[in-house]
Amino acid sequence: MNKHRLLAILLTLGCMINLTGCSRDIVKAASGANVQEMAVEAEDVNKGKKSDGENDRISQEELADIISEDDTLEKIVDPAYEEVERYLDEESAYKGFQGVALVAQGNEIKFAKAYGNADYDDNIVNKVNTRFAIASNTKQFTAVAIMQLMEDGKINLDDTIDKYFPKFKYANQITVRELLQMRSGLVDYLNAAELYFKDEESLKILNDYREKAYFDEYVSDSRWTADIILNNLYLSELQFEPGQAYDYCNTNYYLLGLIIEQASGVSYEDYIKENIFKPCGMKISSMSAEDTDAKGHGSVESGEIVVNPKFTFAAGNIYTNVYDLLRWERMLHTGKLLSQESYNEMITPSEDSGYGFGLIISDGIIRHSGVIDGFNSYTEYDSAKDITIIILENYDPSTSILEAKYDGAIIRGLIK
User: Fold this and answer.
1) How far does Cα 64 stand from its chain's mean position?
2) Which of 291, 306, 327, 363 is 20 to 30 A from 392, alpha carbon to alpha carbon?
3) Rg (Cα) of the chain, in Å, rounded?
């Protein structure tokens, strides 16, 4: 246990981002040379935007040959990945890991195994194809949607957002690009709820949870709407001048979801389903908490937490499994969703952080993590080795603290 945790500390570079645990730590930016190298490594397979439907169908068929969801499958363990299995077995025995882990090289799954309970209350175990909330890993989907609309001429990244939010007094100072890069200066509606929410309706919702054993249960309240989020945006002040600093903030991606709706003319959910889930062959992914198999407990006292989708929205409302996430990773990093130019822009971090568009980039690793009450997720793509790591976890009263990002770092170190 101790040696693995030490390895995690050594391997985890910079801050890891999640939905409920915003970090102000600055991540060392990947150099321009590193980004260029990463682009070159992908160039053989990343040539041009979703050029035609036939290419998309071929990609799905190729993936379907390898990424098959067998409800009876217990595990996949390539001999070279037995050390990964030993590590997770040990963690699971001490309740330090519960969920599903998958590692793939190219399209080939080298390791996949499920651990622990999907539903603690009903004694249902996790399976390799169990669906989880992925929280802030949703942000990379939102970023790709913005880039697709940019390619279609419906969004300009350097436009100020007063075009979309004319009632917000600072909207003419903030660009779409600054929302993507977490450089807007906005207050975080989720992690700084006490600072963000000021109107009477919002304060009433929060006050209803102050006496509860688990205050954060307010995320599940059915009264939250986009109008409430926006009304409080109009009352808020900036933390710093837009573009002058980096600060991870969920409000940025909430607003990007609303921009997607205005630019596309359809709901955020429908846009993602049609333009990302469908071409990626992500048939079981959704934005409905009812579609998740795994249940997450905020705390022992709170029991299961089901987050209001209107509250997390484009900042963290996708539910999926490791197979569909692998489909997404392969389509994203092999050029089936964006042009090479747009993809390069997405994985280029701003100068004072490791954050690109919905992704963290450092030392050739493209990654993100996500945490929401009851769930923890991590995705990683190593562009040099063409290796994908996906970890989905769920908390319940039997588990200790779960850290998907640290488990991901350890697994990276164990891969030979």
Assistant:
1) 23
2) 363
3) 20
